[in-house]
Amino acid sequence: MKSRIAFSLLTVFMALAGLTPALAAEKQSFQEWLEHYRAWDRLEKEYAHESAVDTPEAVLKRAQVYLNLNSPEKALEIIEMTPAFTGKDEADRLWLGGQAHRGLGDLTKAVLWYTQATKFLSDDQIRARFKEESALESIWHDVWLKMYWSYLANHTLSRDSQKEALDMILSVGRKVWNNDFWNKVNFLMNPQSLPAGPPSANGSGETPAAPLVQPADTQLIARAMASVSLEKFEEAASYISQVSNETVRTFWASALSFLSSGNTPGTLEVLLQGNYLKAHAFWAGNVLAPYSKSRSEWFLGNPDSAAWTKFRNNILTMAPEEAEKAIDNELGSMLISEQTATLLRNFKLALALSGGNEQVSTTTWNSIDKRTLPICLRLAGILSFKESLNNVLPEKPAQAFALYPVLAALSGAAGENVHPETEAPFWTAAPADKLKDLSAGQYPLDRLLLLAYWQQRFEAKPSPELAKRAAYLFDDSSFGIRSLIYLADDAVRAKDLQLGAFYLNRIDEPALPPELRTAWLDIKTRLELEAGHQGQALETYQEMTKTGEPVPVMTRLRMALLYQQRREYETAQKELLAMWDARSTMTTALQAETLFWLGEGEQAMRNPDKALDYYLKLAWQYPQENIWCLTAMYRASLIYEKRGKYETAKRLLGTVVRNASRKEQRVAAQARIDAIDKKMGTEKDEDKSTLVYPF
């Protein structure tokens, strides 16, 4: 009878919900039910056991499940192992592949896969897909730009294929967004295919560029770079001191300082005052960041080789004609290797260029393999002989892509602008509020202008979205590296440890300058602490303190508490005392907390007198920091109670009872007062002296 009633009630309930028992069973399959509750791991197993596991529908469903499980590598494995489909199924397969590459952090491959998917879709379907995928407009823009900059540095047989890929991505960009950027770059990439001039853009018109670098200045800079290749920095500085314009002199003096020590300029005020946007961006974003740790690629020979150094210094003591003859004698020997012969010819070129010997330098330049030269000599040759960058770039595409923006920028800084049709002159002078018009409107392909504009935006309003774009586009500059550090810090603060580790691992930590390396180690320390890897965190923290750079105060506090937890009290006290020495930079709340933990450490080391000093100083100096003040007073009262100083203990506890915001704290303090009263026996008049006469 009861089961009938229960069944009837269930039937009524399901009817009210619009279901009958039969419909309820048929409404969802098990797979649909799992999908509704996002049980993706179980759903993948269901798909894997289907009889038609190799059909397009089954393959795509399994790949989608792995994407939902945040396992893009497994999704990509399924997609890449599957033969191409046809029609919409192939579009779906390629689109999922693009999403998987995006999930792995490879935006370039993601865009290429998305582009291939569009071949199987109508224009309306393309627009719909692109609208559904988050932030695809900015990704499309950034990937195309980065591929374009790579294309500029490409002098290999793959250049035509790269141009074809650029045109495909550009075509999709115009089809989906059709804005000023895509129309402008379409004209710049394919001017012969368009009958009209370039479309108008914001900020169009004549760029206010100042002709700061005269031809004689360019030759002085070339001679200076040849001297630097021989590590003759004083001679190079003497050439730079003769450059006619003060701002240009300052820029190149900074370049010499960097090549000598790896240090960037301490101030960029002269560039800011002159509104030299690209020159400022060069140093503010530190385009030379990849060479901060070592500049050996810029110099001739091996700087660490004693034999080479001795030979070089010996030649440099000779008169120019005598030095040239000595090198020619060595080159005439049948016993030297081809590697040594190459080094000697490069040495001869450096001497001729630095000494202004035009005839010898021209002859030598035309007879050597320019791709084997140190970077300083490549730059000197570009300036002296108007050589194309592509003729001096390394054979390997990755190395060429890395070196191209450096040579292009420095060539412009020396008066030889590499791409006058598509990029603003290096010494363009314009107010900072014109950056957007210049970078987005007039010169959308100018890397340094875009770097300057994005730095301006990031300083005004930093955000993870902008940091992601900067970290991708400018990964070889300190701005890009700082953006990665910003992203790693943001992820760790949000407790997204996997994402934080992803960003940290994208950074070449040993190559970082000291202040950025400290930031990297700080984030790694906090990540390891959050992950529960205390031993690793301690090792990383100790490595950070060895850098000599200032340690973030909150990290120092967390590590001090970890040391206390591990009962390494003396080490903890050292960290806390270092914090106290820097208290002027801390909030009063943090100052009070530091004193409290110093007191706790002394108490743990059985130094109650020292602990009492910290507790009482805290209670007196920081009464406004209620939590720390009252807790310190409670701790101090326990010490006084143990010593039999009951009145003092009660006075401290009375303040806790009156001012504590938490009931538990008030109750605990009152309980101690009651216990003290029992110890004291008959209450004495507090106004009377507590002095006791023994006789």
Automatic annotation (TrEMBL):
Residues 1-24 form the signal peptide. The keyword Signal applies. InterPro entries: TPR-like_helical_dom_sf, TPR_rpt. Keywords: Signal. It holds the Pfam family TPR_6. This is Tetratricopeptide repeat protein.
